[in-house]
Sequence to fold (876 residues):
Amino acid sequence: MNIILLSGGSGKRLWPLSNDVRSKQFIKLFKDSDGNYESMVQRVYRQITEVDPSAKVTIATSKSQVSAIHNQLGDKVSICVEPSRRDTFSAILLAAAYLHDELGTSVDDVVIVCPVDPYVENSYYECVAKLEASVKQGTANLTLMGIEPTYPSEKYGYIIPENNRDISSVKEFKEKPNIKTAKEYLKKNALWNAGVFAFKLSYLLDKAHDIVEFSDYRDLYVIYETLPNISFDYALVEKETSIQVVRYSGSWKDVGTWNMMAEVMADDIKGKAIMDETCENTQIINELNIPILAMGCKDMVIAASGDGILVSDKERSGYMKPFVEEISTGVMFAEKSWGTYTVIDAQQGAMTVKVSIRAGEHMSYHSHDYREEVWTVVSGKGKATIDGMEQVLCVGDVIAIAAGCKHMVEADTDLDIIEVQIGESIIADDKKKYEIER
Amino acid sequence: MNIILLSGGSGKRLWPLSNDVRSKQFIKLFKDSDGNYESMVQRVYRQITEVDPSAKVTIATSKSQVSAIHNQLGDKVSICVEPSRRDTFSAILLAAAYLHDELGTSVDDVVIVCPVDPYVENSYYECVAKLEASVKQGTANLTLMGIEPTYPSEKYGYIIPENNRDISSVKEFKEKPNIKTAKEYLKKNALWNAGVFAFKLSYLLDKAHDIVEFSDYRDLYVIYETLPNISFDYALVEKETSIQVVRYSGSWKDVGTWNMMAEVMADDIKGKAIMDETCENTQIINELNIPILAMGCKDMVIAASGDGILVSDKERSGYMKPFVEEISTGVMFAEKSWGTYTVIDAQQGAMTVKVSIRAGEHMSYHSHDYREEVWTVVSGKGKATIDGMEQVLCVGDVIAIAAGCKHMVEADTDLDIIEVQIGESIIADDKKKYEIER
Fold:
């Protein structure tokens, strides 16, 4: 299978674990069969390759997610980076062109587009394989997956099929309905639109040429910002007459809110936390170094990270967005290609950060115009390059880096540094990158 | 009035705001009439001096509380430091000897012993003044305060008076009863024993000489550890036949648990926190730099400090002791005579601390055998003394202090330093103090 996984942008609905630079798909709350924690994106990749060990997965995503994907999946997946933010039509088109022009995928090959965030059983990817088989048979231009509804939901778009067979042509699409209308749809064997689309690569590229003028992937990349900002559904799906839907009746959960995430996370407690015996139906995720004690909590989710602490009734957790927008802390934690970056103290004119670099990795060679930095090595070994001079680093070593001075660290073993930043204006943008001079 | 305030030891019942070095009486959750936050000990001192502006207050306490008392009350109170931990008989005796031998209080003066932790109205201290007046009249050797019960409590000892007049002689004392017995006591006009005792100084000193052999305060201080470890009630009160009780019917709250503290704290939120509109009867105290978002919380208390995070149903919060004992973090925050000490990161072999020194203050001149320290000044100005050499400190200055090296900082303005400690074994006991060489 050729799968394009759409790994969408940052979200705040799983605050404080998701933020502007950390999407929910990278939070490790699930477990694999060996009992190791895995993230949404790791779980999806594992499930796809369990169903089809030869599957080729390309993740369509933004630049900000590249480090996290590399950290979590290594080189096992291809990554198609969107140069700016557009809706799904452009994102899928760019990824399709990437498959064709960069990975050499044949125009006769089937491509299946899947969202990265539903929590499902492996049978979901067996159904995805059915979509592929169906496209190969050539009975329709576009094949979708429809989820058998478990209740008349107002949250999803509906597909009305011609009949209730496993594979049926599509009669019509319906927007998110109210409950009464949803109930009527259910009587007509309606299905939830899962956002899974399968087609021959040639189909999409041909159609796209009708809508956009472009030569190839590189051209699309350059003109990306000028592409129409419309959804794949609106641009193609709803206009296509040769279209069919494959019915999926297994479990499918949209883990976009803490209420749902709490239901499927592997352990009731992750991190330092204690619940007394009177807690009921409560989950705690604690990424802080300090312990949480919960007593008498019923139907609650408690989540703590460097960004903040959420204590919420599960039902209410779906309504947090306006409150989280009000809470305007800077980013306190970031996953980098080389390790992690955790703000441990911030005050006017200074910020203290714990920088952890994995063995063998190094940060970019860079300088800051408006701040100096003091590094103190607290564990591990490595090398620093300061204005072109290399220097061995051991525990206890201190390096003062003046504003304008180029610097970087390379870790021989896992390396922890306490970095004190000092300056009137400490902002992420104050960074110039350089090639390493050697 | 001569008042001895018993400021007892560390407690964990208001964890995470109280810990081994920070007692509940120093947490600032109340407000004075100007709207400034004040602690239990500040509130009590303010109330005493509102009722009697010439009151002399001596706080009987342990060494660990001296800095906090100085920080919060300055030189307005005398402090009698217990050299070790003994029960109330020895603590009160030491304080009484301190009043007589160190402060020159006459043996004919009345002394009133009060606990530091009830939350009361000023009328409580008017009642304390009544105790003093009653002792002066000489109608009994010992005069106690009895709180008019508001319900048949199992939590307090009871005083059964001879009659229900304002001042009555005491018929007998009763231990904490069960509810049924408590109800019977209430029918007999019984009062809660509030731990308030008034007597002439000569009475206590004479009685004490019958129990303990000692010459004066300094002698008592030296032999303190050998003094009987018994309560004042057991040693004297329950054996005294010339004893009376003054009835107090005003409000009186024992704020020993979060349940009670939440009821009397000045604001529902202290620190960075947001509650959504569905929260009910919930209080949040947040000493961390990161925000708390509470949604749909009912009858809860949420408290966060560098030591940990409590999320508790109010009713359950009284049962936290065994859980808090299980949570064995080191002390993450300490109030010092010169400012504050906050652990911001801890890992094997290293600890990062934010040291904040108030303008004009300085830490002790000291050294560590088993750790080095790196200081980076992040705000303010001051002077460091390193192995006898004085050095001016400005923002951005870095000082590396090897193990064995003597060091201290003096703040010219408020001064913040990030201190990275590095060593195999980082423990509070690894500290030698010196006189400053100048």
